[in-house]
Amino acid sequence: MDQFRGLMAAFPTGVAVVTTFGQDAEPWGMTVSSLSSVSMDPPTLLVCLRDASPTLDALVRNGSFTVNLLHHEARPAAELFSSGDPARFERVAWEKPESVGGPHLVDDAHAAADCEVDHMHRTGTHVVVFGRVRRVVHRSAAQPLLYGLRQYASWPRSA
Fold it and tell me: Is the pTM of this model over 0.70?
Protein backbone atom coordinates (compact mmCIF):
# COMPACT_ATOMS: atom_id res chain seq x y z
CA MET A 1 0.00 0.00 0.00
CA ASP A 2 3.02 2.32 -0.08
CA GLN A 3 2.26 2.85 -3.77
CA PHE A 4 -1.26 3.99 -2.86
CA ARG A 5 0.11 6.42 -0.26
CA GLY A 6 2.50 7.80 -2.86
CA LEU A 7 -0.31 8.15 -5.38
CA MET A 8 -2.49 10.11 -2.94
CA ALA A 9 0.45 12.27 -1.77
CA ALA A 10 0.84 13.38 -5.40
CA PHE A 11 -2.76 14.62 -5.52
CA PRO A 12 -2.94 18.16 -4.10
CA THR A 13 -6.12 19.12 -2.30
CA GLY A 14 -7.58 21.89 -0.20
CA VAL A 15 -7.30 21.76 3.59
CA ALA A 16 -10.25 22.05 5.95
CA VAL A 17 -11.00 21.61 9.62
CA VAL A 18 -14.24 19.82 10.44
CA THR A 19 -15.71 20.99 13.76
CA THR A 20 -18.67 20.04 15.93
CA PHE A 21 -19.86 20.22 19.52
CA GLY A 22 -19.95 17.38 22.03
CA GLN A 23 -22.67 16.51 24.52
CA ASP A 24 -21.61 19.20 26.99
CA ALA A 25 -21.14 21.82 24.23
CA GLU A 26 -17.37 21.23 24.21
CA PRO A 27 -15.79 21.91 20.81
CA TRP A 28 -14.23 19.12 18.75
CA GLY A 29 -12.37 19.30 15.46
CA MET A 30 -9.89 17.67 13.11
CA THR A 31 -8.01 18.53 9.93
CA VAL A 32 -9.25 16.83 6.77
CA SER A 33 -8.22 16.84 3.15
CA SER A 34 -10.91 14.40 2.03
CA LEU A 35 -13.70 16.83 1.21
CA SER A 36 -15.91 17.00 -1.84
CA SER A 37 -19.00 18.67 -3.16
CA VAL A 38 -21.63 16.01 -3.87
CA SER A 39 -24.68 17.92 -5.05
CA MET A 40 -25.82 21.48 -5.67
CA ASP A 41 -29.51 20.57 -5.20
CA PRO A 42 -29.72 19.97 -2.35
CA PRO A 43 -26.32 21.44 -1.47
CA THR A 44 -24.37 18.51 -0.01
CA LEU A 45 -20.75 17.98 1.01
CA LEU A 46 -18.91 14.85 2.03
CA VAL A 47 -16.02 14.57 4.44
CA CYS A 48 -14.05 11.49 5.48
CA LEU A 49 -13.21 11.11 9.16
CA ARG A 50 -11.11 8.46 10.89
CA ASP A 51 -13.50 5.95 12.51
CA ALA A 52 -11.74 6.06 15.91
CA SER A 53 -11.87 9.87 16.09
CA PRO A 54 -13.53 11.55 19.09
CA THR A 55 -14.56 14.29 16.64
CA LEU A 56 -16.55 11.71 14.67
CA ASP A 57 -18.18 10.47 17.89
CA ALA A 58 -19.23 14.02 18.80
CA LEU A 59 -20.43 14.70 15.25
CA VAL A 60 -22.63 11.58 15.27
CA ARG A 61 -24.19 12.57 18.61
CA ASN A 62 -24.65 16.21 17.57
CA GLY A 63 -25.99 15.55 14.08
CA SER A 64 -24.31 18.64 12.65
CA PHE A 65 -20.85 19.98 11.81
CA THR A 66 -19.00 22.81 10.13
CA VAL A 67 -16.43 22.57 7.35
CA ASN A 68 -13.90 25.39 7.83
CA LEU A 69 -11.95 26.00 4.60
CA LEU A 70 -8.49 27.17 5.63
CA HIS A 71 -6.70 30.07 3.98
CA HIS A 72 -3.04 30.10 2.91
CA GLU A 73 -1.76 31.52 6.21
CA ALA A 74 -3.53 28.90 8.35
CA ARG A 75 -0.92 26.16 8.23
CA PRO A 76 -0.45 26.36 12.04
CA ALA A 77 -4.18 25.65 12.50
CA ALA A 78 -4.04 22.73 10.05
CA GLU A 79 -1.13 21.22 11.95
CA LEU A 80 -2.75 21.91 15.34
CA PHE A 81 -6.00 20.18 14.39
CA SER A 82 -4.13 17.18 13.00
CA SER A 83 -2.01 16.86 16.14
CA GLY A 84 -4.63 15.62 18.61
CA ASP A 85 -3.69 18.42 21.05
CA PRO A 86 -6.57 18.45 23.58
CA ALA A 87 -6.18 22.24 24.06
CA ARG A 88 -6.45 23.13 20.37
CA PHE A 89 -9.57 25.30 20.80
CA GLU A 90 -7.76 27.33 23.44
CA ARG A 91 -5.10 28.18 20.85
CA VAL A 92 -7.36 29.48 18.04
CA ALA A 93 -10.08 32.10 17.77
CA TRP A 94 -13.50 30.57 17.20
CA GLU A 95 -17.17 31.38 17.50
CA LYS A 96 -20.38 29.41 17.73
CA PRO A 97 -22.57 29.41 14.59
CA GLU A 98 -26.06 30.92 14.59
CA SER A 99 -27.85 27.57 14.30
CA VAL A 100 -26.51 24.14 13.31
CA GLY A 101 -22.87 23.28 12.91
CA GLY A 102 -19.64 23.45 14.86
CA PRO A 103 -17.15 26.14 15.79
CA HIS A 104 -16.15 28.62 13.09
CA LEU A 105 -12.39 29.23 13.00
CA VAL A 106 -12.67 32.98 12.54
CA ASP A 107 -8.98 33.79 11.97
CA ASP A 108 -8.01 30.69 10.00
CA ALA A 109 -10.92 29.93 7.65
CA HIS A 110 -11.71 31.99 4.56
CA ALA A 111 -15.14 30.31 4.42
CA ALA A 112 -17.27 27.91 6.45
CA ALA A 113 -20.21 25.64 5.64
CA ASP A 114 -22.61 24.63 8.43
CA CYS A 115 -24.06 21.19 7.72
CA GLU A 116 -26.59 18.72 9.11
CA VAL A 117 -25.67 15.04 8.84
CA ASP A 118 -27.68 13.44 6.03
CA HIS A 119 -26.17 9.96 6.16
CA MET A 120 -22.89 8.11 6.70
CA HIS A 121 -21.03 5.19 5.18
CA ARG A 122 -18.20 3.27 6.87
CA THR A 123 -15.39 1.99 4.68
CA GLY A 124 -12.06 0.66 5.92
CA THR A 125 -10.64 2.90 8.64
CA HIS A 126 -12.86 5.89 7.82
CA VAL A 127 -16.46 7.04 7.79
CA VAL A 128 -17.80 9.10 4.90
CA VAL A 129 -20.16 11.73 6.31
CA PHE A 130 -22.62 13.38 3.94
CA GLY A 131 -23.80 16.77 5.16
CA ARG A 132 -26.61 18.99 3.88
CA VAL A 133 -25.31 22.53 3.78
CA ARG A 134 -27.59 24.85 5.77
CA ARG A 135 -25.50 28.03 5.73
CA VAL A 136 -22.30 29.31 4.13
CA VAL A 137 -20.19 32.11 5.60
CA HIS A 138 -17.49 33.85 3.53
CA ARG A 139 -14.92 35.58 5.74
CA SER A 140 -12.30 36.76 3.23
CA ALA A 141 -11.01 36.47 -0.29
CA ALA A 142 -7.75 34.93 0.94
CA GLN A 143 -6.11 32.22 -1.11
CA PRO A 144 -6.88 28.64 0.01
CA LEU A 145 -4.39 26.42 1.82
CA LEU A 146 -3.39 23.37 -0.23
CA TYR A 147 -1.69 20.11 0.70
CA GLY A 148 0.16 17.79 -1.65
CA LEU A 149 3.52 16.06 -2.01
CA ARG A 150 3.54 16.03 1.83
CA GLN A 151 3.78 19.81 2.05
CA TYR A 152 1.52 22.84 2.41
CA ALA A 153 1.26 25.51 -0.27
CA SER A 154 -1.05 28.25 -1.48
CA TRP A 155 -2.78 28.72 -4.77
CA PRO A 156 -0.52 30.84 -7.01
CA ARG A 157 -1.91 34.25 -7.89
CA SER A 158 -2.17 34.86 -11.63
CA ALA A 159 -0.02 37.64 -13.07
Answer: yes
